[in-house]
Amino acid sequence: MNSLFQHLQISQRPVKPRSTGWTMVLDKSLGLNGANDLVDTAGDYIDVVKLGWGSSALYPQSVLEKKIQIYRQHDIRVCAGGTFLEFAYERTDLSSMLDMLRATGFDAVEVSDGIHPNLSRTQKLRMIELAVAKGFEVVSEVGKKLAQEDLSIDNRRRIQEIKEDLSAGAQKVIIEARESGTVGIFRANGEINAELAYELFQNVDPDLLIWEAPEKNQQAWMLKQLGAHASIGNVAPHDVISLESMRYGLRGDTFRDHCKGTRRVYLELGVAGAMRARQRGDLVVVVDAIRASTTIIRCLELGAREVIPVVSAGELRGEVTVGERGGSKLPFADFDNSPLGLVGSAIRGKSVVITTTNGTECIQAAKSDRNIVLIGSMTNASVVAEAAVAWATSQGCGISLVAAGRNNQPAIEDRSVVTQIMQAMGVVSARGTLEPFFSENHTNDFLESESGANLVQLGSRDDVVYCAQKDISSMVPIFDGRKITAVQLMKAVA
């Protein structure tokens, strides 16, 4: 660090050796001059250099030893690639090869089973144990290099393998993404597989994982989700300063995450997202814009004593019932899930029981005995944002905006609403599995959405237009685990 850094009054990250926030560089072919240049400019920020694949076997002996020495003199671990050990397992005695690596100067090894066709789980775990016994710091890798093989690993199995590798002695586990960033937690196009990432976040301590993320947008996503202490692997030598800049907010990708007063808000999808928010203890705003959220708000505006959300049609029993599936009214319900079809005289002072295709299930899934669940829609976007911020601030908890979606897929109308609520919260750092959707014409978005088009076809176009109107309600519904009632904003602020 230099005097400019000090004058910016930035809190410095822990010095090496760090237990979290590793930067693991993939050295594919740097010469001695390149290695010296790298450590001169960025040595303080590098925790591990991995000599990629089996490339360790291809350098002249003197160059290999000098290169390792350059890195280790700057407190950088030097790691042989996982493919190298897989090849050694195939071709020679692994114990003697580990001895040779130690004699050459390596102090870390990667143990993987990403490409070998016959390496069993038992053998991989024994390799980890052997390397630990030989005095190496061991990082294992979970995942396959071939996309089709990697896709065959379900989330439960991936988590189990991570835990087994850690139990065998691995210090950290690398989540395979390859140099291209197109497998594992990344899809073939490089976009994040957020569902898998969050499954890992919740079942394994993220500090024990190294996330292979070679691309800037992938690195930024990880830092936004986990903070500056996320350990990132497969970092190109020329990207080390870029990554460190993002860790400190010195680059636009993460700048707002480091601004004073920035609020971290998770955007989540569906029942799974509601459950993640609940597990974090977040204040949750559930949005099912077309039409459950809007209908619930309208019920309370018309004087309903309470609204009780139920998941199954068989539970739809009460003083007044509202129910639909796929946009159509359930035959035994008193009312359709239509904010405009409600009759005030029929529900005023009554208990209303409601079941819908997605929304009521998300509401139920979001609630625990220690968090607050509010109901949001376009019609109350600003006021529910204000209430959420006030309540989360007083409770010292995070905020999650959960879009119910359609058939477990993102729905434009719900994304649009959660984005509007998020924007009404001020300076926000968006996290989570759902991408924001910014629009200037909500009515068109709602009408052209899959849910909107379905309702138009069913003759309920006016409902869709009504649901798209912003801030026409001052109602903030709150769910206590059984019933939804109206909460006064002043009470939320207090």
Task: Write up this protein.
It is a single chain. The chain has two domains: 3-257, TIM Barrel (Alpha-Beta Barrel), CATH 3.20.20; 264-493, putative 2-phosphosulfolactate phosphatase. It is α/β, with parallel strands linked by helices and 494 residues long. Helix 18 packs across helix 19. It has helices spanning 3-7, 32-42, 61-72, 82-91, 94-104, 121-133, 147-151, 155-168, 194-203, 216-226, 240-248, 270-280, 292-301, 344-347, 359-366, 381-395, 412-423, 442-448, 450-457, 461-467, 489-493; strands at residues 23-27, 48-51, 77-80, 108-111, 137-142, 172-175, 209-212, 231-235, 263-269, 283-287, 306-309, 320-325, 328-329, 351-355, 373-376, 399-403, 428-432, 476-479, 484-487. The protein has an eight-stranded parallel β-barrel, surrounded by four helices. Strands 17-9-16-10-15-18-19 form a seven-stranded mixed sheet, sandwiched between helices. The protein is elongated, with a radius of gyration of 27 Å. The chain contains 21 helices and 19 strands. 47% of the residues are buried.
